[in-house]
Amino acid sequence: MTKNYSSYKKTKEVYFGGDLAFPVAVVLLAALITYGLFYFFGITVGIIFNVVISWCLYFFIYYFGKSNTGITFDFLLGVAFISGVLLFVDYGVYTLVVYQKTGMFNKFYFQLWLCVLFSIPIAYYAFRHGSYYLAERSMATEYLRVPLKIRHDRELLMYIDNIQFVNTSRRTMSDIKLEKPNCFYSESELNKMDSSNRNYYLVEIIYSEMIHMPFSADSLLMSWYSVIEDKYYDIELPFPFEKLTIEQEKYPTNVSKVLRGKKTKRLNLHIHANGGIRLFNDDMVLIYLQDNIPTVISEEVRNEKIDLHRQSHDYYSNPKAFLNLIEKIKTSGGIEERFLIQNKLIPWRMTISGLRGNNYLDVDDVSFSEYKSEIAEMEIDKLRFLPKKIGIVYRGNYLYDWLTLIFNSQKLFQSIQKLTDGNDEVAVRFDLNFENGDETDLQFRIIANDKSILFGDWEIQVKKDRKQDMVDHLLDSDEDQQKRSLYKEAWDLVFDKQYDQAQEKCDMIKAIDPRYGFAYFLEVRLLWYKEGSKACYAKKDYFIAKTQHEPAALAHMHNNYGCLYDQESRYEESLAEFEKAISNNPKEGIYTCNLAEIYCKLNNPKKALEAAEKSKKAGHQSTTLNAILESKGTRYV
C-alpha cells in the first residue's frame, strides 16, 4: 500500500577532511616523485611514470575482490581519468622545473592552473554543502517532528506489519520502522532479572522514537496480526492533522531556524483487542475506535506470522511452550481485566505520613497519563485512574527524584474490589507511611468501608545517590534553621540586655557551624556592649578574618566598625569601612545611607546627596535618609 510513498531521509552532514585526504595525499606524493623525474630525466619519463602509476592504482581499486581481471573499457576510462588528473597537477611541477633550469616563467598560465586546481575542491565542497542544505530544508519543511509511543497489552502477542502516517496527495509517509516483536519472557526468566530490567520488559511500550510525519498527513495506515485473537487487521483511518498543535523547534540553537523544523506534542497510540485503536496526546483524543473488522488472510500467511512472533522469544521459541502460553493467556482473563482497569475511574485519595521535606509526586497511572501533583492535592477525594507508578521528588538544591513506587495495578484493583464489595462509588484511601522516616519500613495501606488491608504487591526503587543528597540537604536545612532560631533568640536577649545569655546562644551557633559569619557579627556587638569599642578594635583582624568567606556577614562587620569609628568622630576611618561594606553587599541600602551621613559630617554635600539617592534606589527608608535628601546633603538630622 505504501510502496510508492517516500519518507523522511536523514542527510549526512558535510565535513572537510577524510573523504579527500587519501586521494590528495596520493596526488601530492605522485607530484613530488614526478618533480624529480622531470628535473633529472626529462618530461617523457615523468609522463610514463604517471600513466603507469594510474594503471596500477586503478587496477587495485577496480579489481579488488573480483575474480575476473580482464581489461574492460570502463577500466581504461578510469585509468585515463586518473592519468589526466595527475598530468594536470604535474603542469605546475613542470613549470617549476622549467623556471629552475631556464629562468623562464609563464605567469598567466601558472595563475590559470592555480585557479583551476584550487577551485575544483572548493566547488566540490560548495556543491555538497548546498545539496546538504537544500535536502535538510526540504525535509524540515515537508516533515513534522513527532515523539511517538506505541503500546499494546503484552499478552495480545501482536505481530505488527506496518504503522504509518501518510499524505495521500503528496504520496509521502512517516518513517516508523518497527523491529521484531518484544520478547515475551517466562516467569522464571523474569525472576532472574533485577527489578529495573524486569519492570522494563513488563511494560507494554513496543515503540518509542522521534518520527517525522508529513505535513497535512490525512491517513493512518495500520496492519497487524493478533496471535491471541487469531485475527489480522488491515485498516486505513482518516487522520485529523489540523488538530495538532505545531510549534517551532528551538534546539539545537547552533542550527538555523529553517533547518530545525517544527514539532508537536507526543502522540500515544494504543492498540487494543478486537482491533481497537486509541490515538491521543496531552490535549485530546485524536482517534478512538472500539473495534475494527478483521481481514481474511491465508493459512500460510497466518502460520508465517505466528512463527515469526515465536522466534522473537527465548523460552517460548519452543513451539509447544508457545502453544501452552497462548492457551494460558486465553483462559486467564488478564487482557480483559487490564483493559477494564485502564478505562475505569475510581474515587481515591492518598495520605502520606513520615515524609520529611518539600516533596511532590510524579504519577504514572493505568491510563498511561503522566502528571505531577503536590501531596496536598492527592489528599482530596477525586475520581482518578489507579496509579501504576509514583515517583517522590524532593525539592532541594535541585529536584531529587529519589524514590519510585511501582504497583501491580491488577492486584491493587482486586484489593479495592474486596474492600468495597465491588461498589464503584465507595471512596478509597491509600495511606503511605514512612515508619521512622526510612523507606525500608515503608507501608502502603488501602482503606475503604471502615476496613483496611496492608498492600504488598509493589516494588520500591531507591536511587541511593539522590537519597543521600536529599538527606544531606535536609541536615543542612535543619542546621540552618537551628542557627537562625538561635540567632533570633540571641538578639532578643541582646535587646533585653541579657548579654551573658546571648553569648551562650552565640557560642551554640559557633559550635553548630564555626563558619557562620553572622555569629561573629553578633559576637562583636556583644563585645562592644560588654567591654566597649577598644576591645572591638583589638580583635578587628580576627572578626574580619572570620567573616571573609561570607560577603553579607563581612559587609555587616565593616558597617559595624564604621559605626564605631563614627561614634568617636573618626570620620575618614569610618568612611573607609562603609565603602568596604558597600563593595561586599552593594544592594543593602543602609550602608550607602551611613556613607551619606559621613559625607555630611565631612561637609561634602554633593557626595552625600549622591550616596543618599543610591540608598533610596536600593529601597532603604529612614529619617536620616529623608533629612539628607531634603537638605541636598547638608544635614542628616
From TrEMBL:
Keywords from the named record: Membrane, TPR repeat, Transmembrane, Transmembrane helix
Transmembrane portions of the chain: 20-41, 47-64, 76-96, 108-127
UniProt xrefs under InterPro entries: TPR-like_helical_dom_sf, TPR_rpt
Organism phylogeny: Bacteria, Pseudomonadati, Bacteroidota, Flavobacteriia, Flavobacteriales
Name this protein carries in UniProt: Uncharacterized protein
UniProt cross-references to PROSITE patterns, sorted A to Z: TPR
The organism of origin for this protein: Flavobacterium salmonis
Ranges of the TPR repeats in the UniProt entry: 555-588
